[in-house]
Amino acid sequence: MTLPTPIKAQRKAAPDDNAPHILVVDDDSRIRDLLARYLQDNGFRVTTAVDAETARGTMRGLTFDLIILDVMMPRESGLDFARTLRASSQVPILMLTARAEPEQRIEGLETGVDDYLAKPFDPRELLLRVGNVLRRGASSPSSGEVRMGAFVFHVARGELKRDGETVRLTERERDLLRYFAQRPGIPVTRQELAKDGDSGGERAVDVQINRLRRKIENDPANPVYLQTVRGKGYILYPE
Predict the structure, then answer these.
(1) pTM of the prediction?
(2) Which of 1, 19, 156, 157 has its CA 20 to 30 A from that of 62?
(3) For residues 56 and 91, what is the distance between their CA atoms, to the nearest angstrom?
């Protein structure tokens, strides 16, 4: 697997404690380390395990938002582990495989795996699939409310209130906040935000984010809820 150039750059700040936590299970140490580094650089918390037994022990003490699981592992295969896991857990699973036969993919999907990715793969595709699986698995507040301290945003109505008082939003600010609210805890790139509306490009997105922070953060210079993922984009951490 070849990592894109940005991964060779200087290491970025550690992911926030509220970022989605991913368990990578693969007996290949190189793949494990590369995946962990790439995911961490893109805003995720990552724990690794060398095999199913180690993963099972790790899961006794930690909660994960997603498992990236290799099919071909010694002793207990990824498919067998996924099968036993599904008896007690619905944690999303993204399966990695060196084989792309339809029969194997079908077997995995029947087992309860959420998505499949064949090796070798572009890490950028992995990141997209991770985001898609997390979005499907999240209890998205698409028509409900998200709370950010004294602020409450009603997603369907596009209405922001602070302590019961309405906070005025521009149409673009409303669209941005709704976009984030439907993807809580998931990094959103500047490119995605620029495409989501008539934003004037990625630089304009940064300006709009700063304006939005002034309406949902007590200290916009030190945001708690709408945070920056360095070199990537932004992420919303509602309560």
Answers:
(1) 0.55
(2) 1
(3) 13
